[in-house]
Amino acid sequence: MYKVTKKKVHGLLHPEIVGDERWDKIINVFIIVLIILNVVAVILETVKSINNRYEEFFHYFDWISVIIFTIEYILRVWSSNHEEKYKHSVWGRLKYMFSAGALIDLIAIAPSYMHSIIGIDLRVLRMMRLMRLFRLFRLTAYMKSAQMITNVFKKRANELALTFILAALLIIIASCIIYFTEHLYPTEKTSLFTSIPATIWWAIVTLTTTGYGDMIPLTDLGKFMSGIIMLTGVAFFALPAGIITAGFLEEFRINRIKKTHKCPNCGEDLNLENNHHHDENGK
Amino acid sequence: MYKVTKKKVHGLLHPEIVGDERWDKIINVFIIVLIILNVVAVILETVKSINNRYEEFFHYFDWISVIIFTIEYILRVWSSNHEEKYKHSVWGRLKYMFSAGALIDLIAIAPSYMHSIIGIDLRVLRMMRLMRLFRLFRLTAYMKSAQMITNVFKKRANELALTFILAALLIIIASCIIYFTEHLYPTEKTSLFTSIPATIWWAIVTLTTTGYGDMIPLTDLGKFMSGIIMLTGVAFFALPAGIITAGFLEEFRINRIKKTHKCPNCGEDLNLENNHHHDENGK
Amino acid sequence: MYKVTKKKVHGLLHPEIVGDERWDKIINVFIIVLIILNVVAVILETVKSINNRYEEFFHYFDWISVIIFTIEYILRVWSSNHEEKYKHSVWGRLKYMFSAGALIDLIAIAPSYMHSIIGIDLRVLRMMRLMRLFRLFRLTAYMKSAQMITNVFKKRANELALTFILAALLIIIASCIIYFTEHLYPTEKTSLFTSIPATIWWAIVTLTTTGYGDMIPLTDLGKFMSGIIMLTGVAFFALPAGIITAGFLEEFRINRIKKTHKCPNCGEDLNLENNHHHDENGK
Amino acid sequence: MYKVTKKKVHGLLHPEIVGDERWDKIINVFIIVLIILNVVAVILETVKSINNRYEEFFHYFDWISVIIFTIEYILRVWSSNHEEKYKHSVWGRLKYMFSAGALIDLIAIAPSYMHSIIGIDLRVLRMMRLMRLFRLFRLTAYMKSAQMITNVFKKRANELALTFILAALLIIIASCIIYFTEHLYPTEKTSLFTSIPATIWWAIVTLTTTGYGDMIPLTDLGKFMSGIIMLTGVAFFALPAGIITAGFLEEFRINRIKKTHKCPNCGEDLNLENNHHHDENGK
Questions:
Q1: How high is the ipTM of this complex?
Q2: Ordered structural domains, chain D, with CATH
Q3: Residues facing C269 on adjacent strands
Q4: Are D23 and D15 in contact (CB under 8 A)?
Q5: From A246, which residue of chain D is nearest by alpha-carbon distance?
């Protein structure tokens, strides 16, 4: 009886594992909507005019949410040892409590208690309450396409990391060039390129083509070098797009092969790109 | 006789269904040009100097257009029950009147009548008259490539939707980070990052690399975090490009297979990616 | 003798047709360098400080260039009837004179004569002299990759044209939305969104992610709608990149097939994508 | 004994050649960290507040680094003739000293000596010390993906170069158009488009979609032409992304073929794209 309840509770809170019965869905949609409303509340609380008017409402809404999330958290921990990897009734549950998902859940509720007990700063509290946002990432587990995107990033992690390193080198080199052109040749206006770190800000804003316009090279040489840097940047910042696109095509191709490539002779699955997995004499 | 006329009228107004006889084309090109001229008129009416000079002309042009569009609308509704799905002489026509296309047509002409009868606000009238623009989307029905682009967006709808959700998460997370860095560490200038919604505007402007420059982080920590956010954004906003490109390649591949893959043995169409649809012994 | 000279002259001026003998190259490189120097001269002439100092030099340099270009033009026209399609000694040459290439050559030299004869405005003259720039496009004829890029644009012309039309629709719709949000709800600052044409400028600057920051929506609703427009724009403006990338891949694939696909049975070229151009029983 | 030492030293300094023993790694990581710290130091030295406080520290840190780099350089030169191509004990070493890698190493340490001997300007010294940054490119040699990126850029060098030339033409043409529209029709505000070189700066900032907003066309015609230029730019600047993406896909394909294509009949490697490297009768 106790075990059945635990299994049921576990199933209700992890619908992605067990299935999609009616109650699973209702509870899940309720939790998701509550998380979204919490995030919206924290965002709106920062608007003074709204906060002044609805302060009390926000206060009560937060406490109701925290209580619901606390109950959910306790039930999750309690039912966690239903799973094989958290089997032990004490250590298993502790192990679960230190899993990434459970920690995020804890961080989402802990600050509210800490606020009323220890008296944590309200602004820090708000920031921490936004951690609830991260719980939304769980949603992506339901989406098939999420796995594809994750796959692309995982498989191309090396190339993307290298692109990041090259981008860092390009940014530093660009910053140094512009720092020295703007620094060595003083203009009538006071240059904003006072140091290399300040110029790195300019380089990132420029090379990502954001271009705020708060810092603009004023010397002719600086403009000339910036022009070259910008054009180089266009070719260079096409790299991540290229890597990611190529990655997607690979994923699509793999999915396609899985779906369509069955040998027309024997009906077996083909796990090679080769169209022939056996030849005519192979019967 | 009555039926033949109705069929002819229906054909004239739906050249994409019946064919492209001479009169179809003339009527269609005339309607399209009239729609474009109407849109141009509404756009130019908003320029004060032009409106002051040509106000009367715009007035008459609008009324002539409305009359032509009204006639077209009535003829469309009248001849609609020529089609199988709107067969019933009353309910079929009513059903047609509530189809998306017919509603847009109605919205395009109704405001002008409402203006002279109920006295609707002129500015609202102008906005509604721009609805005529949407009728231009009908044009895309003639273009083969439009279907390809629609296909790409449809087939990749899941991935694109997920990208949108992830973009929303990234924007909110970025906003919160910058809001707190800019808010907690006050600078001499009054910060524009007064609330998270205000910072979301900054995040969208920055992450789409638009970079107006109306809001710029001023603290060192804020600039540092913005730099990381921008670089992350470049990799992240390459996702839609990647998905769409991969989608196009799939479309091209499918078209190619349809065109070129006929079995060299028997001349039959191949509907698989497999180059062999039957083997040597399969005869 | 006369014919041989003409053939030789024709060859010298069209090295891409005849071959690459020594003199061809020298003359060609000389003409190209002269064109580039002319463009540089016209660009530098617009800088006041440079023009004041070197005005005389620019004047003489222009006349020497014009004389050389005139001689080249006359020789081109004279030797043009060496080619098959311009065979007739009078009509053939006239026909050549109205070809795109010859007209550009004429436009490049005519203004200088018109200036000294009719007294054409100097500023218009300068602009027309920049037409010499277009002669540089001839260079691309030598580059193999130029043909590939041209091919991509040609074959994908339909899709790219449609993208342009859709972009125009998106820009107009975005302009109307923001015009009405910024216009109907007046703010304390005077809005810059005075008319739809003015807002179209904002829409283009925003949707291409240029983001000058000269026009920024000030109302909350305007900012909200702009945010949605920007995010839509990112997905939408990924279309040309997607189409062009897919186009390149097609070109690469075609080149690859041309190179590598020879039938392993008979050594014949395969002009199909099919790996089999004849089956086992076809011997 | 001497030879063994030399071989060992050479191995320690070139772990990418010999292998990855324990000491190799330690020395290498130490050198890399020292280079990064040096770059960070040079960057931070340009921040006045930091430099004032830690000037002495930076001074000592620089000298310690220079001594270590000098020792490394001497050992590299000394052990260089262990390699086949630098075999000769004098000329081989000299040849090595003039290799790109060795020159960068020299440039990284020379300025510090020149400063204390000849009294080179401190600001020039700092700039030259940043050359140490280039030594980080050596790191990329260890990364497999670096080779892929290099391959893509090498194989597509022609297309990318052509894109650069076309970009230059587009920039010049755009500059001329906007220069003349902004120059011929004077507005109340003083135009910033004073010369074509100044307008080229605008064109680069605009076409790379950086859009600082320091120069904005003010005339209606100028804005109209800019709009067209921006939209053209979007399609055009999709070219590098397209070329690079297509290049990556080629690389992935080649890697895949290398890995998976073994003939299922005989187990031999297939070095063609053709799925058949021998036919049924070829046994």
A1: 0.81
A2: 2-142 (1.20.120.350), 143-283 (1.10.287.70)
A3: C262
A4: no
A5: D249
